[in-house]
Design goal:
Length: 271
């Protein structure tokens, strides 16, 4: 099955999110993951304690050497930190991976509240990254920043998803987990319309890295030749299973069990 995914994102020393979550998710779903690391973070389940950006030229070199040798069937971007990083990443991808599906997770703020994207970089992200993306996967706070709209309920989600499509991206997966309620609703918006996914909320504090994991799982599906809707559906099922199986590590927002597919009984639950 495989499928090569190049992941361009930051490292999470706690192992629950970022590059570490990306690698685990792609591997767990049968893909092959390569990486270009944009920043190092010192973090745990209680939050981000420090960020050390990787020099832009070295980010470029990581992307270039992977794509010119290994290649990629899909791309995933996560934490890009600032405008020079976004510009550099987009330039390399445009040259070395034209036409390769890109899942862009517009990472802006960590779960603990630490800013992972400089405020002045939002416009750069909208201008440079979104037109390259096949799919963006914002959560509600990120969607509010990108759309300039307040999102208080599912009706607002519909309006925001439609607004985000006007930014030049062909598909938006708007994640509704930040809304209150017993159901979690995600909307997949394309020019063809909006598809509604819903699932019962899993009450747990162990949700660190869900956004990174979901985006990388979708990228793995696209790399394996799945249609977008099917890749999203499988990725959501995988993330739900990984949340339900979370090992309960740490004092704060703990990680998922990315290896959930290694248990045949749990794998069967993915359908």
């Amino acid at each position: 099955m495989h499928g090569r995914v190049l992941i361009v994102a930051g490292s999470d020393s706690g192992g629950g999110a970022g590059i570490q979550a990306d690698l685990k998710a792609v591997t767990a779903l049968g893909g092959f993951a390569a990486t270009a690391i944009t920043a190092l973070t010192a973090q745990n389940t209680l939050g981000v304690q420090g960020v050390l950006p990787v020099p832009v030229e070295f980010i470029r070199q990581q992307i270039r050497v992977v794509l010119t040798d290994i290649g990629a069937d899909a791309l995933k971007t996560g934490m890009l930190h600032d405008s020079p990083t976004i510009e550099a990443v987009c330039a390399e991808l445009a040259v070395h991976a034209p036409g390769v599906p890109l899942v862009a997770d517009p990472v802006m703020v960590a779960k603990g509240g630490h800013r992972l994207l400089q405020p002045d970089a939002v416009e750069t992200l909208k201008r440079r990254l979104l037109p390259l993306a096949t799919l963006i996967t914002p959560n509600l706070p990120e969607a509010e920043v990108l759309s300039g709209m307040a999102i208080r309920d599912e009706a607002d989600m519909h309006h925001a998803a439609e607004a985000l499509l006007t930014l030049g991206v062909p598909a938006v997966l708007l994640k509704g987990g930040h809304l209150e309620g017993a159901l979690v609703v995600d909307l997949l918006a394309t020019e063809a319309g909006i598809h509604r996914f819903e699932s019962p909320r899993i009450e747990t504090r162990h949700t660190h890295g869900t956004g990174c994991t979901l985006a990388s799982a979708i990228a793995a599906g696209l790399a394996q030749g799945m249609a977008l809707h099917d890749a999203v559906a499988r990725a959501r099922a995988y993330v739900r299973a990984a949340i339900a199986a979370a090992p309960g590590i740490g004092q704060g927002h703990g990680p998922l069990d990315h290896g959930v597919t290694l248990d045949p009984a749990r794998l069967a639950a993915l359908g």
